Amino acid sequence: MFLKKLILGGLTALFFSSSLFAADCGPNGQSIRILASDFPAIHAIANSAESNCAGSASEFTRNHTTEARQIMNAAQTPDPAEYTSVIVANSTLVQLMNDGLVRPLNDLVEKYGGNLKSNQLITIDGKIMAIAFMANSQHMYYRTDILDKAGVDGIPATYDEIISAAEKIRSAGIMEHPLVMNLKVGWNVGEVFNTIYLAHGGEFFNQGSAEASINNAKGIAALETMKALVEYAHPDHLTQASDDTQGLWEAGQAAIGFMWGSRGGVILDNEGSSAEVTSNTVLSAAPTVTGGSIPGATLWWDGITIATNVSDSEAEATFAALVSGMTSEMVAANNDDAIWLIDGFKPGPAAAGVSATAQGGAKSYPMFAQMGLLHNALGAELVDFLKGAESAEQALSDVEAVYETAAKDAGYL
Amino acid sequence: MKHSTFLLFTLPSLSVMFLFIAIPIVSVFIQSLHIEHKQVIIVSENCDPFGCETTTSVDTEASAKLKEKAPLGKFNGFKTYSNRMHFAFDEIGEAWNSSDSFIVFVKKIYNYPLYRALSFTLTYTFVVTPFVLFLGFLVALGVNNLPKLLKGPTIFASLLPMIVTPLVGSLILFWMVDGDGVIGATLQKLFNDNSLSLKASPVLTWVMLMVYGIWHLMPFSFIVFYAGLQTVPHETIEAATIDGASKFQRTRHVVIPHLMPLAIFITLILLMDNFRVFEPIISFRAEAHATSISWLIWNHLRESAYPLYNAAGATSMITIFCVGILLLPVLIRTWRDFNEKNKG
User: Rounded to 5 degrees, what are φ and ψ at A363?
Assistant: First the structure.
């Protein structure tokens, strides 16, 4: 009898507690299908949404793949779309919006977005198109022990200071190539140019048009800065992306790094590296131009979107589920996985670089509809200049010519 | 054979060829003549966690209307073929007029993607093909002379480079030639130069890719030659031995002429394969120093946000055209041999 009571009591308590804390999952019996990239922070959001709302949905499926960006447009074009939600970043939101594959969320935010902060709302002409949950950007990594050994005072804050610090490390005979940057031909090399160009105060397009405007004094200055930095980078820099630079850093083969903030947690943890490296690594803001104030970085956010080509009730259920995952409990449990934009985030050492860069006034990655084409052209055409086979003017005019050809073919010019 | 019977016999293969070869090629060709409709661009105010910016976005409704009217896109004629991404006729004319010497002109041409890719692709094809042919023949001869017990394992080991998936094979080599890898570090030690990098130098990158190509394709020519060696008539060899021919002379005057048709077959296949070199460029991350025609096609399509179907289509047509030119001499020769034999 006692046992029966206990079980009954337990069950009642369970029932009440779950109904008390149950998140608002919107309409019942809907299908929720999510496409997302594959890193811990996104898993944290999706896990939390799944554990809240999978019970009230008819199906809850997730596809986490680093190739999400490559398949999203094809997957979302048919009606009904393959996924009810795609988790995107700045540039991938543009990619979906160019084909009209995401719906405005204003009414859904009104209904379910009680705990969202206003800076999480990504609005385009007043329409909310995405809900951001985390931030990312490139910034500097330094090995303080090596800087000390080479006689560098303080932490370098400008490109010139970085170059002179690198020279000191080299001439002290500590490292021949103290600098690591993601300069792999293609997207990465283009992105490094973007950051330095923004630090020089550059604009990518003529106001209000799709005509590129990078072949100017600021563009040339940015390229010269890039070249000066590359002098101190690993000889194989044109083949190195994030995994490679992180590897070099963790192996103690670099003293100055320009890498993604999302690598901070991985570099500072006690796996894959020695205590000598992790205890002496500090993360700081992206550099500025001497006398300038804009940190040379692009700020990124990751956020959720809802597909255009799904039924309204599926859209509602998906939105409610994902938003229910954005709680301070979720953040507390996964604090170091990301720079969360959600309440309850306690910035640790791994977040220092991104915070400093954002506070310094760095720009967001530009959201122009045609930006991807210019980025491609930069990634392909700057390489000859970095190899020393071409002048800066020639490289920039090549970029503009390549961009123009591609933009005409794609209908932007 | 009656014409109607012949037609009936070949009908299945003809229809399959029509379905899976002719139709796709024609469709790619038609695609290469069209570009995207003009995107209707509007200026918009864009706010994110870091502030607001004025940017542009596509007016999807207006753009969709244009697309509905003509789903193939805007007719562009052969302009895709002549633009900067392909033959770059205008740019080359200008380069010719503004260069004072031929070397300057060649350097300027090298700046255009198609010509850059062609120069590597052709060099690769003409270096790798003869090496593979020659080395494959040598290995086949060697294996053929081994005692029976060793033949099986040797053949298996020699085939390994071909069995390994190209992407995996080249990745393994990519790691080995890294500054921290076996080959890279040994070279650095040998030349006493810590910044020696196979990946940073254009010349060494080309050499590395070609060595990889030879390593990867040699088993193919080896196994075909080895099969051919089993069919060399014993009587002729014996007769030559009795006539006092040395081993070299027997190979030169009996074996090689017997294997000639096979050599032509291998050359044809190798020329086609090598002209489409692609995987090693990706695995070796060699895009900075070496690009190929196939790499260009991939590059046009890679950006899923803005796939340039017209550019990819045009490059594909150019590839087919170039392969045709490459194979022409060999095909003409085969045709002539065939006619002579029939007359005789």
Answer: -90, 155
